[in-house]
Amino acid sequence: MKSLGQIIDLPKIIDPRGNLTVAQQYTQVPFGIRRVYWTYDVPSGECRGGHAHRHCREFIVAVSGSFDVVLDDGQSKITHHLNHPYQGLLVDTGIWRTLEDFSSGAVCLVLAEDEFDEADYIYDYQQFLAYLKCSK
């Protein structure tokens, strides 16, 4: 069974002028980074995500504010509350993810293993469950 997410602490360099955090591919992030995107200005009560990936792993960081990431492997669910810009959540392939409960001003940064490929996404939960059965 795949992991339902792993919180990874990133280096936090404390400086009186402002703190700095670094995330490098193959060091803190265990894969090569091919795409970076961020979500912001999410209206109150809205959710993001609602899909799984066949191949692309992701590393999710709350660079500002907070939000919850609900991970589902088809048998169990776990909620990770992200609210520190020096921590990231590693999400494996074949895991359904939903991002919810965004605080005002929250910014969700995603470092993705692959470039965008529509064929990598599973948007329907029943198709996701069928995919899990076929991939065993």
UniProtKB/TrEMBL annotation:
Superkingdom to which the source organism belongs: Bacteria
Residues in the signal sequence: none
Sugar 3,4-ketoisomerase QdtA cupin domain ranges (all copies): 6-132
Name of the protein: Sugar 3,4-ketoisomerase QdtA cupin domain-containing protein
Organism expressing this protein natively: Segatella maculosa OT 289
